[in-house]
What we know:
Blueprint: H1 2-66, E1 68-76, E2 82-91, H2 96-103, E3 107-111, E4 118-123, E5 126-127, E6 134-141, E7 165-172
Parallel strand pairs: 1-7
Antiparallel strand pairs: 1-2, 3-4, 4-5, 6-7
Amino acid sequence: MLALLVWAICGTAIAGYYSTQYNTYQNEYNNLLDEINVLSRAIENLTGAMGNVTGSMGNLSDVMNSLSLRVKILVSYGNGTTKWFNNTALPLGTTAFTALRLVTSDVNYTDYGGTLGILVTSINGLANNSTLGRGWFFWCEPAETTTWTSPNYSCAQLILHREDTIAFTYQSYNPWPTSPS
């Protein structure tokens, strides 16, 4: 009889232990399900937001295009070496001087101020040379024309427009240089 009583007490204790463990794991399982549902809703919201972002990227591209311009920039070193920077994207209001500084690694200049403005004296280490009568010249071919002109003002005063072409050429100034080709 004592054995039966011990068996009943042990069985009850073991059953109580497993019942408690079952309830603990059931609660953890339910908590995990709740977290999975929260994550699932967050993923759905993120997916919807990504669709909105993707749809508005076209609008963003249009806005960026309206705030920028594209130009062509030529740097000619006077020895047959030329470097074109085609389809260069620049913010609206950019000057030819700023454009040059954005596409070349080293530009030296003298700022005479006032209406004379900036004179480019060296590009990428190639400097004006009065002994040889050679220097840097600035040229512009506005988008609405196909004619190169050498403006009678500083490259820092020429505000670029969409599809303009500008050139900085290293040439002799005696005789007066010819336009880029």
